[in-house]
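Ex. 9. Protein: Agmatinase.
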Amino acid sequence: MLGIIRYRLLPNTLCLFRRFTSSRSHTQLPGEDSNLRGDGAIRRTAPYGSTIEQTYAGVLSFLRRNYTRNLNGVDVAVTGIPLDLATTYRPGTRFGPRGIREASVQLSELKSYPGGIDLFEDLSVVDYGDCWFDMSQPKTIPAAIEEHAQKIIRRNAFLLSLGGDHYVTYPLLKAHAAVHGKPLSLIQFDAHCDTWPDRHSDSLNHGSMFYYAINEGLIDPETSIQVGIRTHNDNFMGVKIIEADWIHRHKTQNVVDEIKHRVGNNPTYLTFDIDCLDPAFAPGTGTPVCGGLSTAQAIAILRRLGSINYVGMDIVEVSPVYDHANITSLAAATLAYEFLLLLRHKKVVDKCFPFGHH
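Predicted structure tokens for Agmatinase:
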């Protein structure tokens, strides 16, 4: 009897031994050829490549990218804009950049799905850290954000910003328009149009940024589009609206065709308010509205927008204090990762994207 038990246990014991001692699998994982293990955000010497990380530990940066302000040879700089002073309902988006970074750890562990791409072999990405401003001096904040963004853009790095409430897009648009020229086209994923009138352009209001931006010529409403809208406004100021209900009744490609036709090849800024997603998929946000897109719908649309002539991107309105199990932060991190895949495709496949280089 003992001999039978030993015979049956031995193969299982060997399998367990191989499972916990093998350092390589048949399919190579990102970072396996690196000598570094852990804390790649501060130990990696170059903006390319990956490192093996413990997803549950280590220094947090977006997708474990180098935490640095050295932009030499950098394609994309990721920065946080931790503002929530412009919210009209629930606060907490000052914690958005941190929440998105925390939720991004798994996304850097494996190659991309479904393409199986090791993103950072081709695209040099760094985490530039957060924009600093004095919360006790709110009138100085817009200029601080604009200056912070321009400093990055003028170094010929493409800027991906993590909000923060949606007001941050206004000074970000100013910074991009100053470098790339104006007006820009706008692709806005949102539950709200954010073009409600406000006579005081220096007020912090996350519902009026695009009212300011259109009136100041930062964006061209005739070549701009808002996707997922499900709140009323008496005047959408000439921006094309694709309502969430329309999206639910049509195919993904129909939505993509509308977006591409509207913006054409114009220099375009992409902004994604996480409340574009239904609260079932993004509960952690300041002004949730039922009836929105699913995370899967948003990803499917984004993956087909590779031909757009992007000049900048942001994802905003993540409020982790109202989140559950990091659902919203994970959605935002995943969407931002999809943004980077679009940019990588432009660099490697299209070979026609300058990443801000002039």
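Check your answer against this statement. The radius of gyration is 22 Å.
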